[in-house]
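4.2 Preliminary Data

To establish feasibility before requesting continued support, the project team ran the inverse folding procedure on a target of 324 residues. The structure was first converted into the token representation described in Section 3, and no sequence information of any kind was made available to the design step. The complete token record follows.
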């Protein structure tokens, strides 16, 4: 099963300031702020929802095709993804813009000052999925993840016009989208991903009920944080899957991306949706135990031991066959 993952590709530059921002601000001079913070640490992490999801799928051996836009500074990041089983040949490289970047400084009170540079991400709208499909011999599913909004709309329209099944996954872009855009992006999708808060926001902005949305997409996958995930299907009882026990809660960033990577890998293997959700929850648990969205290591023996403990022998036997 050939799955293309569209979405943002970015790097995060995270710095730590040992003092307090509040101590550096003069109340009657806030209209002319000019400050420079001497920071102690710089942590550069690979990120972007498209790249995070593709990385997880690559770890599971399902050969994802990453579709997005990056800058000429993408070479090292590309090599990392290639080494971890991601097909990056369909990433568009901008001739003038850098890869999207989040730059953030955190003080001793955990206050943050950050900036997000969209950069090359804005060129995602120039990517044609047909050329991707021709290169790889056809596409069975396209995940349309958070990216340049115009790019998301174009990919959705192209999937509909070319009869390519697609999954809608607005993620953080939902906050800036209007109801008409959301209705366009989800109408005709085979799957709709969101968390609980986003689920309510989608219903509020579109004016559609839960039942109406489910009727338009067929499958609605809602992540529930520490309570796992719920899968709703037209005419069938919901499926609810819990999460495995974690060894530590280090950083929740990228947990949702990891779930999607596991779930999509399960679909690629042809296992049931319940099994696919279990794989997603197990992979998400690895991410919450790790600092960084792509810093976890998938050790297959350990993964299967923990999966077996969480979901039972029958489930583990089915997944083991595909994981190898």
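Position-by-position output of the design step:
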């Amino acid at each position: 099963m050939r799955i293309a993952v569209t979405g943002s590709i970015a790097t995060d530059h995270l710095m730590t300031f040992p003092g307090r921002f509040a101590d550096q601000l003069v109340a009657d001079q806030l209209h002319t702020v000019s400050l420079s913070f001497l920071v102690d640490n710089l942590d550069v992490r690979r990120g972007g929802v498209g790249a995070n999801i593709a990385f997880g799928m690559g770890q599971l051996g399902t050969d994802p095709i990453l579709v997005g836009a990056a800058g000429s500074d993408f070479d090292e990041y590309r090599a990392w993804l290639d080494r971890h089983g991601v097909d990056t040949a369909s990433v568009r490289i901008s001739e003038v813009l850098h890869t999207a970047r989040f730059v953030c400084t955190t003080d001793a009170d955990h206050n943050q000052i950050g900036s997000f540079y969209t950069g090359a991400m804005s060129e995602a709208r120039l990517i044609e999925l047909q050329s991707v499909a021709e290169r790889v011999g056809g596409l069975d599913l396209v995940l349309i993840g958070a990216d340049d909004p115009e790019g998301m709309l174009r990919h959705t329209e192209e999937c509909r016009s070319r009869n390519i099944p697609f999954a809608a996954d607005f993620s953080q872009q939902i906050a800036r989208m209007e109801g008409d855009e959301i209705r366009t992006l989800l109408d005709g999708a085979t799957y709709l991903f969101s968390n609980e808060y986003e689920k309510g926001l989608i219903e509020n902005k579109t004016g559609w009920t839960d039942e109406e949305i489910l009727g338009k997409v067929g499958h609605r996958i809602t992540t529930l944080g520490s309570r796992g995930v719920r899968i709703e299907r037209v005419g069938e009882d919901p499926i609810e899957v819990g999460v495995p026990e974690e060894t530590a809660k280090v950083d929740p960033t990228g947990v949702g991306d990891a779930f999607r990577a596991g779930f999509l890998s399960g679909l690629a293997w042809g296992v049931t949706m319940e099994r696919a959700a279990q794989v997603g929850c197990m992979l998400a648990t690895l991410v919450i135990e790790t600092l960084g969205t792509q810093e976890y290591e998938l050790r297959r023996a350990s993964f299967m031991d923990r999966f077996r403990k969480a979901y039972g022998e029958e489930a583990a036997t089915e997944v083991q066959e595909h994981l190898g």
